[in-house]
Amino acid sequence: MEVVATGEPFSFETVFHAHYERIARAIGRIVRDPARAEELAVDVFWKFWRNPQAHGEKAAGWLYRTAIRTALNDLRRQSRTDRHERLSDLVSASSSPEQERAAAEKQEHVRHVLSLLDERQAELLLLRNSGLSYDELASALNLNPASIGTFISRAQQAFRKEYISRYGET
């Protein structure tokens, strides 16, 4: 039996009962699904059980940090799944070969216009379209966070102007 720094023996049950509800609530605030939050909380405690180095005085901090990371990873996974499902729905929703050809042509036009833009503007539009926040964009592109809105607006205007000049209004 392990002994924590306070001299008391480590008890997984005690830690579980002391923290499970709060861990599940913390995860639930992120994933916004109470049932999924409970599943993820159990995963967090399973990781805790398998990691003896996490046991001890700092167990609560380890549990909360792991809970938040687990919830964020689940959000990312769900976002990817949703995106893939939307894309497959778009493909299956195109009922005719003509509609599929038109969609592919429009994608090619967008790619071409992006290739003509300033590299930073194209990166900014692509990253923003990928769901990055203003702060994440600023960090990824080494820009001032206060200027991101202006940069995005200018990039959108440049894209729109180039697209219309080449392909007309859509």
Provide an overview of this structure:
The chain has 170 residues and is mostly helical. It has two domains: 68 residues, Orthogonal Bundle (Rna Polymerase Sigma Factor, Chain: A); 72 residues, Winged helix-like DNA-binding domain superfamily/Winged helix DNA-binding domain (Arc Repressor Mutant, subunit A, Orthogonal Bundle). The protein is 77% helix and 0% strand. The chain is built from seven helices and no strands. Helix 2 packs across helix 3 and helix 5 crosses helix 7. The protein is elongated. The chain starts with 11 loop residues before the first helix and ends with a helix. The N terminus is likely disordered.
CATH topology of the largest domain, what is it called? Arc Repressor Mutant, subunit A
Number of helices: 7
Provide the CATH superfamily of the largest domain: Winged helix-like DNA-binding domain superfamily/Winged helix DNA-binding domain
What Rg do the Cα atoms give?
Answer: 24 Å
Helices and strands, in order, run as HHHHHHH
Provide the β-strand percentage band: under 5%
Residue share in helix:
over 70%
In short:
With 170 residues, this protein is mostly helical.
How do the strands and helices of this protein lay out in sequence?
Elements: H1 12-31, H2 34-50, H3 59-93, H4 97-116, H5 119-129, H6 134-141, H7 148-167
Any key phrases for this structure?
Rna Polymerase Sigma Factor, Chain: A, 170 residues, mainly alpha, 7 helices, Arc Repressor Mutant, subunit A, disordered N terminus
